[in-house]
Design a protein that fits this description.
five-stranded antiparallel sheet, eight-stranded antiparallel beta barrel, about 15% helix, single chain
């Protein structure tokens, strides 16, 4: 009877321990070793090696990289290919699903780069966005405008509404504000630097390509409130790629 009681307790303990390990996303190294990088990319140096049979905790995923913590509390980044060579607490090989349409709809962060035309000048833009809900997100963008007579740097903040994120080609609408610094390329005496406020409205479309990548098209209409009391209006077309996580 006592042996049966102890067996039941042991089974309960093992079950609880296994549940706790699953809840903490624990996996065991199956390869002879896996390498930890200081950041989420091949360009970041390897600073630690995790040996076979060690347990690691998965903290978060960023595209094809996983931030993990070892039994000794060391934290770093492991590539997806090596994470596939780990085991779940039940001994089964870890399965890592590719990003799905549902992951795309429920994404939190989006980073990308776009290029195109800004009022007849070339523009290149880098942006990052955070999704508050499936339909509403905020973005901040930094742009370089290269014209024949002047160059500009533009910092803008956007509120984005995406009414149908589940569509293959998903339209969105934007409103925003920002500042633009313009530096003339001319040596004329009248030419001078300027910093002006701006507002804009726009529309565009996103299309989920594969994994965590998407293509994006933007049209924006800007009004620049110049210090010369004659506001200027610019139209912008640009396209590019982004990834989400």
């Amino acid at each position: 009877m006592r042996a049966l009681y102890l067996s039941v307790l042991l089974c309960l303990y093992v079950g609880i321990a296994t549940a706790e390990e699953a809840a903490r996303n624990l996996v065991q190294v199956y390869d002879p070793y896996i390498e930890m990088h200081t950041g989420d990319g091949r360009g970041f140096p390897i600073f630690h090696v995790i040996d076979r049979n060690e347990w690691i905790e998965i903290l978060l995923q960023r595209t094809d990289w996983f931030k993990v913590r070892t039994e000794n509390g060391v934290e770093g980044w492991v590539a997806r290919g090596q994470m596939l060579q780990t085991l779940n607490p039940d001994g089964a090989k870890v399965e890592i699903k590719e990003a799905s349409q549902e992951d795309y709809i429920n994404r939190k962060w989006e980073n990308g780069i776009l290029g195109g035309d800004f009022g007849g000048a070339y523009i290149i833009t880098a942006y990052t966005g955070y999704h508050l809900t499936e339909n509403i997100s905020t973005e901040v963008s930094l742009s370089q405008v290269l014209g024949n007579l002047s160059s500009s740097v533009m910092l803008a903040f956007h509120l984005v509404h995406e009414p149908f994120p589940e569509w293959t080609v998903s339209p969105f609408f934007t409103l925003g504000t920002g500042i633009i610094d313009t530096t003339p390329r001319s040596s004329l005496a009248l030419a001078r630097d300027s910093r002006d406020n701006l507002t804009h409205w726009g529309l565009g479309a996103r299309m989920h390509l594969t994994k965590r990548f998407l293509v994006r098209l933007n049209y924006n209409n800007y009004v620049v409130y110049t210090s010369r009391n004659n506001n200027e209006e610019f139209t912008e077309w640009k396209a590019g790629f982004a990834f989400f996580f």
